[in-house]
Design brief:
Blueprint: H1 4-15, E1 24-27, H2 31-45, E2 51-54, H3 57-65, E3 70-71, E4 79-84, E5 88-89, E6 95-96, H4 103-111, E7 113-121, E8 134-138, H5 143-154, E9 157-160, E10 162-163, E11 166-167, E12 175-180, H6 187-195, E13 200-203, E14 205-206, E15 212-216, E16 222-226
Parallel strand pairs: 1-2, 1-4, 2-3, 4-7, 7-15
Antiparallel strand pairs: 5-6, 6-14, 8-12, 8-13, 9-12, 10-11, 15-16
Bound molecules: ribulose-5-phosphate.
Residues 28-32, 84-87, 97-103, 106 line the site of ribulose-5-phosphate (5RP).
């Protein structure tokens, strides 16, 4: 049986096959994507040439270490493919993302890709989203009021994310509120409703965006799931 890290490594390496020579590629964030980036670094050293756009400063840093140049999203027109992890994914391909705090850039980059491929181990496959706290990115001004709106509207616990005892600041200079929904029955509607609260920048609900999921299992198998999306 493989460990969680070994599964992630296997999926990351497998996903590298989707990056073809000359492609413009959006690269996600997180511990599963880490292994994809490592593998792309290896393939780049062997001559694979592609244009990378990063979804976080963390991913930029890893690419630099791997000797892979990257562009900003503004510098490329459209991406052929984006590859990223997820915190939860349901049978329709709806996801909770943002456990690593990169949800805003991830959503922008992935919205502008022709194909979105998600790389997850089996633990991320769920029947219903919501056991993982939903990250909601908010501007720092008035964040307490936004938090209170979420608590009052949905009767949930919501806390400002902290790192090493201080507020976590996103790459875009915002806070994240982690919202404990438990079960989310209508992710599309919830995403729309949360966006109506002034001060909300983005939610970690990625609905109708995933085209494929590469899923890894402890017994070493890898399965490909395809979704019928219309985003
Ligand atoms: C970062 C994300 C990540 O894709 C998500 O948290 C999964 O990360 P990991 O592969 O480390 O479990 O959304 O904002």
């Amino acid at each position: 049986m493989l460990t969680q890290d070994q599964i992630k490594e296997k999926i990351g390496k497998y996903a590298a096959d989707y990056v073809k020579p000359g492609m413009k590629v959006g690269l996600g964030t997180g511990s599963t994507v880490f292994y994809l980036l490592k593998e792309l670094g290896r393939r780049k050293a062997q001559g694979l040439s592609f244009t990378a756009v990063c979804t976080s400063v963390q991913t930029q840093r890893i690419l630099s270490e791997e000797g892979i140049e990257f562009r900003t999203l503004d510098e490329v027109d459209r991406l052929q493919v984006a590859i990223d992890g997820a915190d939860e994914i349901d049978p329709a391909g709806n996801m909770i993302k943002g456990g690593g705090g990169a949800l805003l850039r991830e959503k922008i980059v992935e919205y502008n890709a022709d194909e979105l491929i998600i790389i997850v181990d089996e633990k991320k496959l769920v029947d219903h989203l919501g056991a993982f706290p939903l990250p909601v990115e908010v501007v720092t001004f008035g964040w307490k009021q936004v938090r209170q709106q979420l608590v009052d509207n949905y009767r949930i616990d919501a806390s400002r994310r902290e790192k090493n005892g201080t507020p976590f600041i996103t790459d875009q200079g915002n806070y994240i509120l982690d919202c404990h929904f438990g079960v989310i029955t209508d992710p599309v509607q919830l995403n729309t409703d949360i966006h109506l609260i002034p001060g909300v920048v983005e939610t970690g609900l990625f609905t109708g965006m995933a085209d494929k999921a590469i899923t890894g299992y402890a017994d070493g198998t890898i399965k490909l799931i395809e979704y019928n999306q219309s985003y």
